[in-house]
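Still learning. Any example?
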Amino acid sequence: MQINLVTQMQAHVIIPSSLTLNTPFLFFPRNKPLLATTKNFSNFNLSNGSSRTTFTRKATIKNGSEVSNQEKKEESQNQQLKRAYPFHEIEPNWQSYWEENDTFKTPDEIDTSKPKYYILDMFPYPSGAGLHVGHPLGYTATDILARYKRMQGFNILHPMGWDAFGLPAEQYAIETGTHPKTTTLKNIGRFRAQLKSLGFSYDWDREISTTEPEYYKWTQWIFLQLFKKGLAYQAEVPVNWCPALGTVLANEEVVDGVSERGGHPVIKKPMRQWMLKITAYADRLLEDLNDLDWPESIKEMQRNWIGRSEGAEMGFCVLDHEGQEQEISITIYTTRPDTIFGATYLVVAPEHPLLSLLISEGQKKCVEEYIELASRKSDLERTELQKEKTGVFTGSYARNPVNREAIPIWVADYVLGSYGTGAIMAVPAHDSRDHDFAMKYDIPICWVVNPEGESNRKFGETYSGEGIIMNSSGLASKLDINGLHSKEAASTVINWAESTGHGKRKVNYKLRDWLFARQRYWGEPFPVVFLDDTDEIVPVPESELPVILPELDDFTPTGTGEPPLAKAVSWVKTTDPTSGKPARRETITMPQWAGSCWYYLRFMDPKNTDALVDKKKEKYWGPVDVYVGGAEHSVLHLLYARFWHKVLFDIGVVSTKEPFQCLINQGLILGEVEYTAYRDSEENLISADFVTLLSELSQERVSEEKVIKSGDYFVLKDNPTIRLTSRAHKMSKSRGNVINPDDVVTEYGADSLRLYEMFMGPLRDSKTWSTGGIEGVHRFLGRTWRLIVGPPLPNGSFRDGTVTIDDEPTLEQLRALHKCIAKVTEEIEATRFNTGISAMMEFLNAAYKVLYFNTYYLSLDYKCNYNFYFPWHLSCYQWDKHPRSIIEGFVLLLSPYAPHMAEELWSRLGHTNSVTYESFPKANPEYLKASTIILPVQINGKTRGTIEIDKTCTEEDALNLASSDEKLSKYLVGKTIKKRIYVPGKILNVILDRQDVAVSKS
């Protein structure tokens, strides 16, 4: 805390709260900033009218413009004097200590009678860009939890590794000719160094990389188990093929018809692919979500992705050109069989297998063109609700089985061949997509459901809910569901369909089998061979694993659809290890998801050469207690990992049904706020209020120092009529708003970065980075250091040891500490780290004891003798004594958050062991009882406000507190007090001289 004083002569003094002989302060007389250094300053007097404290110190005060180049050079050479504490020495020293002593190593043999805590980060892909300040957010949170639980006596598993296979390294290899392994190892080294510089308590002996053969041997082993259980198979399926990248892309890697990486065109192409039968586990993946401590939004996303629905499959006979039924039937899936009488057209997907048989000669050209366009869209684009629906009439009709009406068959890309049967009955009155489509192409609309309590529908309005059925009877089908409720009507229709052979009851899923293949080089090889004479797939014996990825010099796409591995001719050509017959290896590689599906298990037993994981170790450590990572992995990675885990559970490798018991998604850290101004064609500035009304405006970035806030908006300092737009964006190199954590650590230290990232706001919320904001937590750490170690010596260094003593603490000190213990403990447990830091800041404020007076006089003598009067009522001093027990307790609380400083302070307090395994303090309830009360304050018998006081507060202290209160001070400061009436714990009544009362009213 700093106290800012503005004198009657318009001078500005900034005085730190810990006011001692060596306390530096800044002086701004008459608004002219002066540069102060600690060379000579004399006669600094502070008094309250009855006593005076004189501080004599030396300083040189000069106008900032008069500082010579020599003085600037001296200032630059003396950076140590500017640091709040010597983090630049402390942090490297303790990082070396931790590494040399294996402080965070989790032994293979542990006391399993102790509780365990497995805390895991979603391991990163080591890109060449290194970390930015957004990455350490989750890592710092997990490190605080890990350090806290260690101190509570838990066995901790807190590892780190690298998800290092994948497309980015391969693309870099293609562009530069550098082998992906070389690039990957370099990037891993960069990431590792950055993480170590932040003091994270990882067990680096357990470090793994998905690219190491010792690791992917067991990825291949898991694949073989899937293959043996019939859960891995090959099929020719339409895939997102990018000719430029020469690989198959997942749906999420395609945006607006082009590859997310590079912006290359992507088309749908049928190719032979490996598939994993995740659909066989759909029900279990759905049901077991209920037992997980995950954000409800994430569980709902997975439920929607799995997309279980109950309905019916119904057959619609295709008609020939004379209206006669053919042998061809289109099977549709619907979750609303109660609306079948309202079906006025059918829609088939562009990839539907019967489509070629449905196209009339007159529609052939336009349908084929439409199919080509649809092949360039991702499934996400095609099903986006807000997107305009498009389609083409096939030229054919089908018969609605319940009313025998002929309805047209359309092809439209909002229907996917991979969902249901690839065809739908369209009911435009009761489905918004179908309604939009029908309105666009002038297709009839028939309302068949009325909400209960309503008799008429408004024209043009769809209703997708349930209700009472109408317009739904067919003489030929002998089916009449009019007047039934939707649920009863649906059941009646299904029963009719099953009895007449027109359909059947069906449970369906949106979830599709997992396309588990990439036409890439940099990935895990499949452990299978194909016999030359029969093309039979033969698994490689487990004793032959791993199948090592061969070295290649040419990683470029073949251009034929064959993967780059096809170029490794001598590697591809092989023999079946079992029969000795000629064979060839699989040249497709596994997707990047493969290695990340099970890495959490390998951390439990990373050096085991005989098994994926030892069963005893897995049973002790599993499942992961807390898993922290970004919400962007909420569906695919987590769903795939859960699927593999359940397969491993079924074959007895793991002992739990689920891999991750608790999931936390940290929010994004956005770049610093950007301010934008607008200019018209004549370069005139235009306020943001009018931007939407004008065109042809240019934008320009405005630096923060040129901006001020005006109400709810930001405006130009020099022209407040010009409102600016302000926005924080996701950090990216293209925007130039990436903050390198290395720079922050160099200037403020790792502990400051850790503390700031936690203090910015709730862990799960997105936050905006502000380099200026880190200075606040840096000052907090500096105040903590000075409280315990003492002020700096004249040369800027600090004394050895601390200023603590072995005296018994006061009741006030015990209350301050135990209140802090209780709050910090509660907030760590709830992962509310920002409020835990606030509690420590409150403790520190309590340690700088506050004394109150009525009036102060301050004189600063330097040549021109500045002497000022202040209506100032606040003076701050440190605790007179620093009991060791209090200080040690606070250092233990601080250690999970700022481990480097805590280790140094713990050592200076005389301890020879690391603070890492000391016991975390526990709050004593006796010291948590309320010690303060709210006291009403009256002035001449009229209540003017309240103050918070200690229960044992004296009359004099109560008056001082009232005099310092912002609301009450105007009634008391400088006034003559005739009488005081003080009833402890009840009221303070101050009787003023009548003249002073009149002045107060005026």
Summary: The chain is about 30% helix and 25% strand.
